[in-house]
Amino acid sequence: MRTGLILFATCFLAATLLSGCWDQQLLKDIRIVDASGLDLDPEGKLQATSSVLEVSGSQSGNKSLDEIQTGKGNTTRQLRDILDRKISGIYSASKLRVTLMGEALARQGIYPYLDVYYRDPSSALNARIAVVEGTAHDILTFKKPGTKLVGEYFNKLISSAERRTIIPAVNLQLICPPMLDPGDAFALPYISKDTTSPSIYGIALFSGDKMTGTLKSEDSMLYLLMADKLAKTASVTLKINEEGSQNPEKYIAIDIQKLKRKLKVNVQNNRNIKVTLDLKLKIAVVEYAKDHLNDKRNLTQLDKKLSEELTRRAQVITQKMLQAKHDGFGIGRRVMAYYPNTWKKLHWLEDYPKVEFVPKVTVKIVKHGIMN
Amino acid sequence: MGFFKEMLNNNRRKSRPMPGKSTLTPRPVFPTVQENIQYLKEALFHTDDLVRQKVSIPGYTSEFLFMYTMCDQSKIREEIFKPILENKDGDLEGILISMRANKHDDLEKVIDLVVKGNAVLFIEGMEDCFVIEVGSSHVRNVTEPNNEKVVEGSHEGFVESVSINLQLVRKHIENRNLVVKRYKLGNETKIEAVIVYLQNLANPELIEEVDRRIQNIDADNISSSEFIEEYIEDKTFSPFPQLLHTERPDRVIGNLLEGRVALLAEGSPTALIMPVTFFAFYQSPDDYSFRSLQGSFIRFIRVCSFVFAIALPAYYIAVVSFHYEVIPEDLLLPIKSSIENIPFQPILEALFMELTIELLREAGIRLPGPVGQTIGIVGGLVIGDAVVKAGLVSNTMIIVVALTAIASFVVPSHEMSASVRMLRFPIMVAASLFGFIGIVYSLMIILIHLCSLESFGTPYLAPIAPFRWKDLKDTIIRMPQWALRQRSQDPAPQKLNQQSQPVEEERSDD
Amino acid sequence: MINVRDQITPGQLAFLVVQTQIGVGLLMLPSQVHTAAQGDAWISVLIAGLLVQFFIVVLWCLGRRFPSLTLYDYLPALLGRYIGKLVHLVYAAYFILVSSYIIINFAKTIRDWVLIETPQWIVIGMMTSVCIYLVRESLRTIARFFVLVFFCNIALIIIVSCAYLHVNFLYILPVGQAGIWKITKGVHETMAALAGYEILLICYPFVKGGSVAKIKAVVFANIFSTLLYAFAVFTSLIVFSPQELKLLPQPLLYMVKALGFKLFERLDLYFLSLWMVVATTSAIGYFFMASKGVANLFRQQSNHRKAVPYTAALVFIIALIIQDPLLIDTIGKILSITGYVFIIGIPFVLLMISVLFNIHEARGRPR
């Protein structure tokens, strides 16, 4: 019996060793795609643009370049095959860093185009995703400053904006739950084309998987604060004085230190939904030309002015959200969780714009740098 | 197919009756000197180093016989001629006493003694012969063993003589419980082997088992302790050593005090310690001469090095040929650019480099010291650099292989180090076939093997499997000496406690 | 009567049970229970764990009446020679089928996630060979190995905990949304994943110590498995929105796939490697029960080792034959229903017979 076992093991080993490695995919054979863009051309065809890394084989000092390849087709997967034919080596999107979506495509709905990313076991679910003004192809082929790789460039561009709470920290996986959830929504970074370089414009608001609006960077920061998503830092410059001998004296720059948000959803008469959003900010003044921040009266006044200004802005933002049918604060989810009976009667897409938002921002200055 | 069975069951053979060891019938001493000498010469086939010499003891015709290759001339003068000269008028009895002669009446036994380096004195008309010890002994000095150096602590090492080795052990354990059991091993070589243990600690069942296995050895050529190992270990075809080799008396003593048994044999400075666990191979006397924090740190690193040495190349192969997704973004480009133009598959690259390192190591051992170093430099630096420049092996692979080599040489035991170096090849192959799945598969097989392995009835992987929380204190880390209140359970000592509870002392600083 | 080398401690029994319980179910369970019980899936898991505790008590009562006999040994005494043999055969077949099912599911998951091109028989063969290699050893060695690889469970928990960086607790509210009927269905789904404690039927006589220590060990083991499953299900529920969860067959893997840190990216590959060990131990547990059954089929109280190659051959062939995903699903359904019969139905009947006719072990021999 032992002999039988040994024979079996030998045969098994031999068969395994001789037949080779089926799934082997050598790192040296693949071509890494670090950024890809998806666009919808006017005829409704899908256009994909990929930046493929060109790794020089020299052992010392890696000066890497990338080439941009474009193709047209019907689905994302099909385009991978088309691009694979254009490049030497095996097309691999499993180290993708950034996916850019053209605005036209984003307004049509992004899920069908992302399906392959979600289905493929080797895909990079932690790739960042952003919407661009115009087409992704234009932005990817834009002559970029310096010699940074395209993927790395956009990756850093987006991640630095994430740090400053201008855009939400999202990746392919993180947007998936809200995208499929009727009671939630997500927002993506929105990149616009400047004359000299791509820049972060703000965020693109989504409803379901369709883009429905945008917010500028100052607004997007407040939006993120209202969504309780303060990243490392968040700073904003506000106009608070009308008088002042010089222009800078009219402005104040603040840095948000601490954030406390209270979101309450109230359903009245089973139908009317009222959302009170109470935002308490503790801020540091980082630039204020008029000085004298040690005066208590001055401070209270400033607090009050800032609160009013921010509240006003918050109201504008919520209005925009309602217009875009963008449920970024997950109001629907809350209704589902706390008022399940109401939820059953609602048709959320139509009922959401009827929600009444009452935002209130309270600001308190806690720091003012090393000068009064 | 019985061959396989025989092979795999090597040491599980049942205790069978003692093999017919050549027992010759006793041969009484002849009455005349001439006859005796003739008989001995015949028995030793007239070997040319057998020398006969007459001595003049007043009143007796006497002659003695010895093998000059085995005897010390000055001892012969001291032991044989001097007593005779000093006792010119004395009686035979007095002379023999001052010669320190032993009476024997069986010539067959005498032959064995002559071969060992004794002189035998025949006296005309007597029914006994007298054996006088005049053997010369060439024993090396007690020096620190080259292969087990320590930074701090005792620098003594065993030598090739059992009696000196036993003395080294006894010197440190002045205890009446230290028991020595002697065996004559090898039907042709007949070397002396001893097992040493502490009667009040070592488990009697263990002693019995060791005794049984040694008694069962039936081989012509046993010439040192390493020969004995394969006869008495549990599974010869396991990649892991099941007996600890050491040339350090302090290591032997430490193990004896834990209730283990040590085997020493004439002809080799190596003591075999049994039973051992896997972690014993990762312990070094240095751990105990350092303070516990430092000792723990070093030992922990050593145990980690096992994982490194066994799995690092396999992990690298799996990553670059299957799962490049796991490489962090910032590392991806450097790694990719270093392997971009390598013509071989990673597994071939790795095998090539690993084998090169093995060759270098082997070459370095054989060559004399200074040349060995040169080989190391030529091999390590020149080949390493040239191979990368020639584009045969990638930079990262060199780093991986070098790290692995260092990690495998950290092990304080050479046998374990060799096992580790051997074991990583199958894992590498598995990794090149199935990626991570292959690595996990082969590691599982190794773990299962380790779990099933036993050394003289002690689970090899104790105290991890079976899990013994209390014994962990001296396994991966080393707790302070005063905390090692109990011996580890794995050799099943008769007495667990080795210290009393520490007394909480009131400490005053003034 | 029981070989000393086969004896294990109650502590080892606990690990034996845990490792047999936690297996392939860990990956599949969250989506299965979620399909049945939606946001209340975690409640289902907890209830199922509680129910299992009662089952364990029944099995223990039965084992206690025959302290030195395995299930296979006292079947004939309770059911008569022929029916006893028949039930014995069915039990062995059931265990063989379960081991095959585990191995099939394992191979399928591996194929879906990493080794896409590798032929199935290789993965199945690898798994089977590990099983053979361990089950050939004594029960004590098996238990030692199980204790050793328990750390894999801990590592899995740690990896999954990383997912708590992005969670939304609102997904599980309101508690009780699914209703009792759906929760019950969820309990049914969980029962199959929690199976494995029936190893008590076979291992009871091999455990040293009193009966109280034994039940304590198994109860603790079950508490651990239940909590681990509940943790897995709960985490999946709060990480994925209900709509997305419906699309994912292995939510836990999917969840860690998106995680990445500076040094480690794509945690799913590491997760899968660790899970492989956990799944193997589960298969080994059933493999042991099966080979014990096969061995005893021919000779009373013989050693399970002798039957290992035959059992392995059967398991391997069954795993090779069943490849159609729909067939696998069907078998899974059949197993989860017949599971009740084998795990609790028959033992309960046996216990009743034993109590009613006052049959129990006397001086090491069944009457």
From TrEMBL, chain C:
<keyword id="KW-0309">Germination</keyword>
<feature type="transmembrane region" description="Helical">
    <location>
        <begin position="82"/>
        <end position="106"/>
    </location>
</feature>
<feature type="transmembrane region" description="Helical">
    <location>
        <begin position="118"/>
        <end position="135"/>
    </location>
</feature>
<feature type="transmembrane region" description="Helical">
    <location>
        <begin position="310"/>
        <end position="328"/>
    </location>
</feature>
<dbReference type="Pfam" id="PF03845">
    <property type="entry name" value="Spore_permease"/>
</dbReference>
<dbReference type="InterPro" id="IPR004761">
    <property type="entry name" value="Spore_GerAB"/>
</dbReference>
<feature type="transmembrane region" description="Helical">
    <location>
        <begin position="334"/>
        <end position="357"/>
    </location>
</feature>
<feature type="transmembrane region" description="Helical">
    <location>
        <begin position="187"/>
        <end position="207"/>
    </location>
</feature>
<dbReference type="GO" id="GO:0009847">
    <property type="term" value="P:spore germination"/>
</dbReference>
<dbReference type="GO" id="GO:0016020">
    <property type="term" value="C:membrane"/>
</dbReference>
<protein>
    <submittedName>
        <fullName>Spore gernimation protein</fullName>
    </submittedName>
</protein>
<comment type="similarity">
    <text>Belongs to the amino acid-polyamine-organocation (APC) superfamily. Spore germination protein (SGP) (TC 2.A.3.9) family.</text>
</comment>
<feature type="transmembrane region" description="Helical">
    <location>
        <begin position="219"/>
        <end position="240"/>
    </location>
</feature>
<keyword id="KW-0472">Membrane</keyword>
<feature type="transmembrane region" description="Helical">
    <location>
        <begin position="269"/>
        <end position="289"/>
    </location>
</feature>
<keyword id="KW-0812">Transmembrane</keyword>
<feature type="transmembrane region" description="Helical">
    <location>
        <begin position="12"/>
        <end position="29"/>
    </location>
</feature>
<feature type="transmembrane region" description="Helical">
    <location>
        <begin position="41"/>
        <end position="62"/>
    </location>
</feature>
<keyword id="KW-1133">Transmembrane helix</keyword>
<feature type="transmembrane region" description="Helical">
    <location>
        <begin position="142"/>
        <end position="167"/>
    </location>
</feature>
<keyword id="KW-0813">Transport</keyword>
